[in-house]
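Work Package 4 report. The design task specified in the project plan requires that, given a folded chain encoded as structure tokens, an amino acid be chosen for each position. We show below one input record used in the internal validation round.
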């Protein structure tokens, strides 16, 4: 099956290897208004995430995210971020990744929920002397959050996010590299705390071998200040 997204061609192979993963995240977020009322439009976010693969038995990745953003308007914000990624891919050599990125977020109330579009532009660098080329990647996420009328303080969050490589490098060839589709229930435990439980389908496009499908259990704990 072939799907066109803008000028990008996404081809889903009929055969694909499958695995069961688990991603566990811990997030702290807030703004700078406590430092100064003039900084109320400056936001920050840090996140720690572990990823378990091989049927949820082996640690394959540990990531640390940090980002700061500025609220340009009620619906638009601009963010700068950095990710450090420790990878122990199954049956492959361990390595680390440095990743800087820029986000443009747009939010709009549509129907009974909130629509969010996020465009992320990434610069990726492997921490290895013999493999240090820079890769450029763009990710386009579309997300919809609906506060469920029949479950108090609970929202359904669904999203899709394709990934596109913009240059040829050790990370892969120009074109679509993966696609993520997720559905999650977000529970507001109190004024500052949210718990998210859901499922993510990660489809990874690979050359010269079958593509990879990861069925992923999501567990997110978030604290907002």
């Amino acid at each position: 099956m072939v799907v066109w997204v803008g000028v990008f061609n996404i081809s889903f192979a009929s055969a694909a290897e499958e695995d069961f993963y688990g991603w566990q995240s811990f997030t702290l977020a807030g703004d700078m208004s406590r430092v100064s009322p003039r900084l109320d439009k400056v936001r920050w976010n840090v996140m720690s995430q572990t990823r378990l693969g091989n049927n949820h038995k082996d640690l394959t990745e540990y990531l640390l995210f940090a980002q700061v953003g500025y609220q340009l308007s009620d619906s638009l914000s601009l963010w700068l971020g950095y990710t450090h990624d420790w990878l122990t891919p199954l049956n492959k050599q361990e390595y680390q990744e440095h990743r800087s990125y820029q986000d443009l977020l747009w939010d709009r109330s549509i129907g009974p929920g909130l629509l969010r579009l996020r465009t992320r532009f990434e610069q990726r660098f492997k921490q290895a002397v013999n493999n240090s080329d820079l890769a450029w990647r763009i990710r386009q996420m579309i997300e919809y959050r609906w506060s469920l009328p029949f479950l108090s303080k609970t929202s359904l969050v669904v999203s899709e996010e394709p990934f596109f490589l913009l240059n040829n490098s050790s990370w892969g060839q120009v074109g679509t590299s993966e696609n993520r589709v997720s559905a999650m229930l977000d529970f507001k435990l109190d004024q500052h705390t949210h718990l998210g439980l859901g499922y993510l389908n990660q489809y990874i496009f690979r050359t010269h071998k079958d593509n990879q499908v990861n069925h992923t259990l999501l567990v997110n704990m978030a604290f907002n200040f």
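The chain is about 0% helix and 70% strand. Validation will be extended to a larger panel in the next phase.
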